[in-house]
């Protein structure tokens, strides 16, 4: 089809057919060029609100336009225990008249009338940040409620996990107690984790001599205060770069990594012991015991399958490590965050073992990986999973199915490998559904 034919008036069915042929050729060319159109993350406010709305006694004041307010209300109800958010009207009238700060102050005063409110995070999104919120013009406290400004505009932050980092850092800067080094054997665990994992971490660290453990993000404002005076911080997830910087500027050691897989668990326990100067023989004994427990689990639950892991937050890579130790082939894994120093160990190990890692990924990249590697299972994002199921391949949403289960130490490894094996066994059912909807097979 030449260029001149496409410029003729469309007067018949044949003309429309030519137009559709041109569009098909254009689409084919775009696919051949491997165009990437769809970055995989949601509005950063999603991550920030997950942290802030879950704090007991907190009422978020969202400085934004009504469209974002409407969409993010769903997030707070679905992911944050049915908590509402409050917002002043931030539209063109307020912005042009310069009343935005006054409107926010009035909203804070209304919120503070509820005596059960202890914390009012003022979350500033794109519109308010563009207009400019001067932090010094906001009160530090209204009534009995503390006020904290948290800036998370989408044009500055590339993924919602990084907004969690900003929210936690903002609370630490506002509330953390000054370091006294009196609690030398205490640990701040940084990362959203399954409750059972938090219990297991506490039990293991207690065995090596750690006297107290707190986990951030936390539902308790007091934890953000106490987190300022710990012996070391442990960043379980690689996107907590601002929190890491906060602690390092205070002279508090920061441990990267997590107790997933045999060797990494051993190193993780040893690193914490060294940071807190605990009894070296005791730490070595516990680290070896936990390592052997995980090795026994892995030996009993080997996986012979090709798996693709594609998530949002970078906590996918420790799972890849566990899968590789269990014998699985993981040719490709992706995440929405950038590569960070906190994730360097995983990056070096996984790439050495042959896994292609993709940061700041696009949906199209994940799809091409599925077509290239033809996996037996995909642990991915919702948009990727729907595409994968159309290919007759088992696929589940990583965040809801994987992140909602324990993964640390031997108990977590056992539960996770059992889950993976059960998902792989569903391949036949997915192939049957594909044949049914294509009309090529027996539906019985």
List the helices and strands and how they pair.
Elements: H1 13-32, H2 45-52, E1 61-63, H3 66-79, H4 92-97, H5 100-112, E2 119-124, H6 126-131, E3 141-142, E4 145-151, H7 160-175, E5 186-190, H8 195-207, E6 212-216, H9 221-226, E7 232-235, H10 241-249, E8 254-256, H11 262-276, H12 280-300, E9 306-310, H13 316-325, E10 329-334, H14 344-352, E11 356-358, H15 363-373, E12 377-380, H16 382-390, E13 395-397, H17 398-402, H18 409-424, H19 427-438
Parallel strand pairs: 1-2, 2-4, 5-6, 5-7, 7-8, 9-10, 9-12, 10-11, 12-13
Antiparallel strand pairs: 3-4
Short synopsis of the structure:
The protein is built from 19 helices and 13 strands.
- The backbone outline, from C-alpha atoms, is flat
Total number of β-strand segments? 13
Overall mean pLDDT score?
88
Percent strand = 5-15%
Largest sheet: 5 strands, parallel
Low-confidence stretches: 1-7
Kindly name the structural category. alpha/beta
Query: What is the CATH superfamily label of the largest domain?
Result: Nitrogenase molybdenum iron protein domain
CATH architecture call of the largest domain: 3-Layer(aba) Sandwich
Helix content: 40-55%
Largest sheet, order of strands side by side?
11-10-9-12-13
Number of domains: 3
The CATH topology label of the largest domain is Rossmann fold
Q: Count of helical segments?
A: 19
Q: Distance between the terminal alpha carbons, to the nearest Å?
A: 46 Å
Give the CATH level 1 class of the largest domain: Alpha Beta
Radius of gyration: 25 Å
């Amino acid at each position: 089809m030449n260029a001149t034919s496409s410029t003729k008036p469309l007067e018949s069915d044949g003309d429309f057919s030519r137009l559709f042929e041109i569009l098909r050729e254009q689409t084919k060319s775009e696919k051949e060029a491997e165009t990437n159109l769809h970055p995989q993350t949601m509005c950063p406010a999603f991550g920030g609100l997950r942290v802030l709305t879950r704090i007991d006694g907190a009422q978020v004041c969202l400085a934004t336009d009504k469209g974002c307010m409407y969409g993010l209300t769903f997030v707070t109800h679905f992911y944050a225990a049915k908590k509402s958010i409050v917002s002043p009207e931030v539209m063109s009238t307020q912005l042009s008249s310069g009343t935005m700060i006054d409107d926010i102050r009035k909203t804070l005063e209304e919120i503070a009338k509820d005596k059960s409110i202890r914390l009012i995070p003022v979350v500033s999104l794109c519109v308010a940040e563009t207009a400019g919120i001067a932090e010094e013009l906001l009160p530090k406290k209204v009534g009995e409620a503390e006020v904290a400004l948290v800036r998370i505009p989408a044009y500055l932050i590339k993924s919602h996990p990084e907004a969690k980092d900003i929210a936690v850092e903002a609370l630490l800067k506002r509330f953390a107690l000054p370091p006294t080094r009196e609690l030398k054997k205490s640990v701040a665990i940084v990362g959203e984790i399954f409750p059972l994992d938090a219990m297991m971490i506490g039990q293991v660290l207690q065995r090596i001599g750690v006297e107290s453990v707190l986990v951030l993000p936390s539902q308790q404002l007091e934890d953000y205060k106490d987190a300022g005076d710990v012996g070391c911080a442990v960043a379980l997830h690689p996107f907590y770069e601002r929190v890491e910087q906060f602690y390092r500027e205070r002279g508090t050691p920061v441990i990267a990594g997590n107790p997933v897989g045999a060797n990494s668990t051993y190193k993780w326990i040893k690193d914490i012991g060294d940071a807190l100067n605990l009894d070296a023989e005791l730490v070595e004994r516990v680290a070896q015991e936990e390592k052997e427990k995980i090795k026994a689990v892995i030996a009993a639950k080997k996986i012979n399958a090709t798996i693709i892991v594609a998530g949002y937050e970078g906590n996918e890579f420790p799972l890849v490590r566990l899968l590789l130790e269990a014998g699985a082939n993981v040719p490709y894994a992706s995440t929405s965050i950038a590569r960070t120093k906190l994730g360097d160990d995983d990056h070096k190990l996984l790439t050495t073992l042959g896994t292609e890692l993709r940061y700041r990924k696009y949906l199209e990249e994940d799809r091409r990986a599925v077509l290239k590697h033809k996996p037996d299972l995909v642990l991915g994002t919702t948009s990727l999973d729907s595409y994968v199921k159309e290919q007759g391949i088992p696929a589940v949403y990583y965040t809801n199915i994987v992140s909602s289960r324990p993964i640390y130490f031997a108990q977590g490894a056992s539960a996770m490998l059992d889950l993976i094996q059960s998902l792989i066994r569903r391949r036949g059912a997915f192939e049957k559904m594909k044949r049914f909807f294509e009309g090529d097979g027996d539906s019985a």
